[in-house]
Design brief:
Layout lengths: L17 H5 L5 H28 L10 H36 L7 H4 L6 H59 L1
Helix pairs in contact: 2-3
Amino acid sequence: MATPPVPGAGMPGAFSGPQAQAGREVNTASLCRIGQETVQDIVSRTMEIFQLLRNMQLPNGVSYHTATHQDRQGKLQEHLRQLSVLFRKLRLVYDKCNENCAGLDPVPMEQLIPYVEDDSTKHEDRSLANQLRLANEERREIVEVNKNLKQKNQQLKQIMDQLRNLIWDINAMLAMRN
């Protein structure tokens, strides 16, 4: 069950299909598609390798057919060779994609998603903004009231301290008079 080798794989800049006909300059989207196909090929080849390994019998003293074993081992070696070719092709695609994208500025994901705004969301945004503005005004008022309250509390504390000292002095004078 040998699979044919991938045409053009392993040769720098050589891609199979319409990309080879279009010339050497391939856009990044096509490269990504080629990379995706290469990854799928790698996965399928790996599955085939595991299938071959599962069907192979180990030479553990049981009589086995040498020709069958050699045939399966040859198929396994061929699959491994093709797998290494696919990995080299994937590396070339990866490097070319990175080269094409090197000069691009990263764009936040939120800006890449198209967003259509309807009237209800605009109204909700306005009401949310209005609520936020009202909440900020209320917060400022509360902060100002707290500040005034602290000043009044400080003044009351000073008056109480003065009254305490006055009562202390009065009690001291009354005690001296007796």
